[in-house]
Task: structure prediction
Amino acid sequence: MDWKFENGRIFANAEDQSTLAELTYRVREDGIAVIDHTFVSSSLRGQGVAGELMKIASEYFRKHNIKIAATCSYAHAWLERHSQTYADILSTAFEDEATACKLDGRHE
Result:
């Protein structure tokens, strides 16, 4: 998949430019990036794309020395499962973060 990186967004598009997968985040005043949304097109669900997206994002944050947290329930659960691998980038308040999916009309 051809991942693209924009300020606050990591994504991949289909040839017709429709979104195949997307992760959005905001950077808080304390410098922690909070993942607030993940999306995978229904045509790709069940193929490990969401996990791949989380790995790509986690490596991006690691490369840029950015601590992370997640309010997106999927991202939070994925980071909990991989907390040993990415312990160096998890914010100290990670476990205390509340999760709530960002609803923007793209969830089915």
User: Anything to note?
Assistant: Helices lie at 49-63, 73-81. The mean pLDDT is 88.
